[in-house]
């Protein structure tokens, strides 16, 4: 049977696209990086000499922004596949704007921490929040670059729903959902421990 399939050229392949597989491997690696940082945070916090402070409200607002942006990119994909060009473009652009709003809110949160005398070079508690949130922002900015490219493709290329364009939008969406879920995870670690 196998020899017969080989002759016909119909070798059974995995159903996951190689680019999607690479995306999942990258996400798993990034997640492990953040698990290492949060583990450091939890161990360091329990060892004493920890300055307790309230997180700035901007961090919580930014979580809402990220959740909203996950909805907008999800429905952008839905409208793309339904060939609703206007809603696809509008929601994709909205996701990009929400990405910039998230970055601004993080910066604003850092400024609020600084105004409360919580500095990067001070106690480890503040420094750890700055480093972990800045590392997350760096990954969000990577997603913003992907969203800029997606918006350029949406507005420059002729509109057509192809398998490759669906895959490209799906990969952008998967990464964006990852940075969204990651921020919620980090925020929960910061406020529950």
Describe this structure in words.
By secondary structure, this protein is mainly α. Helix 2 runs antiparallel to helix 5 (124-156), helix 3 (57-81) packs antiparallel against helix 6 and helix 5 runs antiparallel to helix 6 (163-192). Mean pLDDT is 88; it is low at 1-11. It has a domain at 75-193: Cytochrome c oxidase, subunit III, four-helix bundle (Four Helix Bundle (Hemerythrin (Met), subunit A)), CATH 1.20.120. The protein has helices spanning 2-8, 18-46, 57-81, 85-115, 124-156, 163-192. It is built from six helices and no strands. The longest helix has 33 residues, at 124-156.
Key terms:
single chain, 193 residues, mainly alpha, Four Helix Bundle (Hemerythrin (Met), subunit A), 0% strand, disordered N terminus
Brief summary of the model shown:
The protein has 193 residues and is mainly α. The protein contains 6 helices and no strands.
Q: What does the main sheet amount to?
A: none
Which geometry do the CA atoms define? elongated
* Sequence stretches where pLDDT stays below 50 over 5 or more residues: 1-11
**Share in helix:** over 70%
* Sheet/helix structural class: mainly alpha
Overall radius of gyration: 21 Å
- Can you tell me the CATH topology of the domain at 75-193? Four Helix Bundle (Hemerythrin (Met), subunit A)
CATH architecture of the domain at 75-193: Up-down Bundle
Per DSSP E runs of 2 or more residues, the count of β-strands stands at 0
SSE arrangement, N to C: HHHHHH
Q: Roughly what is the average pLDDT, rounded to an integer?
A: 88
Query: Distance N terminus to C terminus?
Result: 58 Å
Question: What's the CATH H-level homologous superfamily of the domain at 75-193?
Answer: Cytochrome c oxidase, subunit III, four-helix bundle
**Relative strand content:** under 5%
CATH class of the domain at 75-193: Mainly Alpha
Number of helices: 6
């Amino acid at each position: 049977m196998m020899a017969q399939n080989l002759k016909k050229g119909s070798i059974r392949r995995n159903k996951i696209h190689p680019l999607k597989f690479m995306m999942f491997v990258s996400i798993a690696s990034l997640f492990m990086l953040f698990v290492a940082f949060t583990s450091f945070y939890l161990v360091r916090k329990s060892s004493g000499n920890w300055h307790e402070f309230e997180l700035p409200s901007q961090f919580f607002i930014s979580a809402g922004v990220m959740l909203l942006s996950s909805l907008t990119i999800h429905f952008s994909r839905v409208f793309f596949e339904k060939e609703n060009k206007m809603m696809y473009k509008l929601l994709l652009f909205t996701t990009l704007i929400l990405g910039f709003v998230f970055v601004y809110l993080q910066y604003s949160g850092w400024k609020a921490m600084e105004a409360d005398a919580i500095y990067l070079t001070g106690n480890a508690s503040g420094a750890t929040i700055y480093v972990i949130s800045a590392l997350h922002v760096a990954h969000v900015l990577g997603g913003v670059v992907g969203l800029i490219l997606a918006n350029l493709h949406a507005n420059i290329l002729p509109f057509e729903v192809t398998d490759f364009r669906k895959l490209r939008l799906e990969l952008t969406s998967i990464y964006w959902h990852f940075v969204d879920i990651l921020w919620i995870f980090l925020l929960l670690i910061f406020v529950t421990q």
